[in-house]
Amino acid sequence: MNNMKIFSLPQPFKERVFNLREKLTGYRREKIIFKKIRGFELNLRNPQSWSEKIVWKKIHDRNPLLPIVSDKYRVRQYLKDILGEKEAEKILIPLLYVTDRPESIPFDNFTEDYIIKANHGSGMNIIVEKNKPADRKQIIAQCKKWLSEPFGLKKHEWAYQKIKRRIVIEKLLRDENGKIPVDYKFKIFHGKCHLIQVVSERFANISVGWYSPKWDYLNIDSEWKLADYMEKPAQLDSMVTLAEFLGTPFDFIRVDIYLVNNRIYFGELTNYPESGRSSFTPVSYDFELGSKWRIIPEYWKQENYRGKDYLRRVGRDVSASQVSIKKDFALEGAGVFAKRDFSVSDCIGFLEGKIRNNPLRESVQFNARLHIEPDLNNLIRYLNHSCDANAYFHGQNLCAWRQITKGEEITIDYNCTEYTVFSPFKCNCGDPDCVGEIKGFRFLTDKQKKKRKGKLAEWYA
Ligand SMILES: [Zn+2]
Fold first, then answer.
1. What distance in angstroms lies between residue 441's CA and the mean position of ligand 1's atoms?
2. Domains detected in the chain
3. What separation in Å is there between the alpha carbon of 430 and the centre of ligand 1?
4. What is the reported pLDDT for 314?
């Protein structure tokens, strides 16, 4: 009898054992699979081909930026941080919803076609078309399954293990013919594009064409159907420029971009294309590409590393040890106090929790329609108001507006997030420009709005 399982280990544990064994055997399984697909031995001591270097990267590169850019949710904020809010908004696919509780997905709110993805891996997608009713129960079950599983453990895909798992729902892009748009995948080595892979009919009858950055058609054969020559897109130069800019902080990365009605959209950043297990030929081309990639262990620790400022910033990310929540039940109040100094624009907290259509006393308005009720253990729930607040929201990040010293109470200006405050109250913050009764953004005078420039939630600006 097959179902007589007496003892079974939880999946991640089994995979960790597998990983340990791999490490101890010099990645024996990885080498067997590689040889089978690529047709030559994997040399991890002296990797030379592109595929070998991808495997090397999986196993050895621990650049803290990799999990951030691989996270389909966090990469959105990353783009805003490095391109600027306005530029990033132009190329980001509209985000409809994000959650770690699939049962909270507000299906009735979505009026267009959309795509549901897990943020922590690849190939976890569900497309929902507005004309076909969604099987909600099945979708929720599938999402829960994704959230319960780490991605890429057995393939040694390190970056994915570090991601906080979430479900992300985005608008589904369609091209001028109503089809899923062509996906341009730019292979960037040290900030320079050396190969473009063009994928058509991504979810159905997939076909792939290969081009040089100057749009010469390349005779590369792979596991996918070979696509015919395609006209050079008019925006090719802009796309290459964007891809190279995004690729600059990495020794190698793949940047995916869509073109819809001549408009550029950001797809994703991928550290380990096909996990280094693609079967493309000629093999000589694998080595030619590999020669563009200089392997420098821990390149990201070097003084002149291009992503250094960003790493420094995220490195200062919140943890419970940096703030304390003081509750005073006698006064029915609470407050958040700094346990260390924060510099201007340091990240103090992250707004996440239940998404709601209507505000609550504890919720923070997220956009024109939605409100987020922070979880019970989220400090944002306990922030008090001040008309001269020392913190503000940059997207979902709670940031220091000015220098905050250890011991100081951290405050936000409710008028900067709430259009209408759920329960208005009299303020006694003591600021000379105190608004008095706090009722929400819509009750501010033009002068008061002007004074809050930079602190206002983005959708007011
Ligand atoms: Zn006030």
1. 13
2. 22-60 (no CATH), 61-172 (no CATH), 174-271+280-294 (3.30.470), 313-451 (2.170.270.10)
3. 6
4. 58
